[in-house]
Amino acid sequence: MTTPREIYERSLEALKVIKDAQARGLIHRTPLIRSETLSGIAGANVWLKLEALQKTGSFKVRGAYFAINNIANRLGAGHVVTASAGNHAQGVAYSASLVGIKATVVMPQYTPWIKIARTRKYGADVILHGESYSEAEDYATKLAKELGAYYVHAYNDPDVIAGQGTIGFEILEDLNNIDYVIVPIGGGGLISGIASVIKTVNSKVRVIGVQSEGAPGAYLSLKSGKIVTVERVDTIADGIAVKRIGDLTFKLMSELLDDIVLVNDLEIAKAILTIAESVKVIAEAPAPPVWLP
What is the signed CA dihedral for 264, 269, 272, 276, rounded to 10 degrees? Predict the structure, then answer.
């Protein structure tokens, strides 16, 4: 099973790939900014990593690009398949177009039309299937086998996790003396990557996960010490409406996280509104903040 140290080392490799893409204008080096408003509310220095300004509108392109770049260059694959409620779908579609391979994306039937349209705009074939991400994922894995394509998991893939971990390196490049890094959780890929990097460099930094109480798979799993499948998810944060986290992300989060907390939809909505008003950025879920003393 992949260890945090192995993810850290793979993230170093991913950082070279991502920096090359950034130099060519294919992926953004997103800003890390201090929010006066949030700092006042928290009574601490709060910094936001603005991945909402990333290509395709989400951090997901980092992991997707690193994984697909490896698939195309090392394995010679010409077709990838994935399942996603939207952000990973766009990251895969965009990344596949950059490296010149075909992408097929299975999206749940409830997926907002704008995410469907954007995924198709990036060149992917889109199939709508299932009432949840889990149902879309089951269909997508079967489809990948039928098509002889490579399946790119949204969060339970070492390369995808390592690609998201490049955010951790950028945070460390921009700030010193970090006390807390707070990261939203769906399936756990983002926080697994960031925590692997942050904790390897400085184990004293506390990494806290935040998850919607309407989709508490990671929270329940970490509290019980085993992977828990949530029968029904219901949250406005549709991109993190995951019934079951992955075995790899469960292992990494269990080893790395200092705590995980739940928030309700009203708190998520208030956070989005506050960020929109104070930072002038629309965030689908609260952007990962960094707290300094």
Answer: -160
Retrieve residue 71's tokens: 């698939």
CATH number of 4-58+161-292: 3.40.50.1100
Residues 76-105: pLDDT tens digits?
889 999 999 889 999 999 999 999 999 999
Strand order in the sheet with 150-151: 125-128, 102-107, 79-83, 150-151
**30 contacts 46 by C-beta, under 8 angstroms:** no
Q: What is the pTM of this model?
A: 0.94
- Phi and psi dihedrals of 163, rounded to 5? -60, -40
- Annotated domain spans of the chain: 4-58+161-292, 60-151
Between residues 85 and 267, which one has the greater pLDDT? 267
- For range 5-30, the mean pLDDT: 98
149: left (phi over 0), alpha (psi -120 to 50) or beta: beta
Topology of domain 60-151 in CATH is Rossmann fold (3.40.50)
Sign of CA dihedral 122, 158, 196, 208: positive
Kindly report the length of the chain: 293
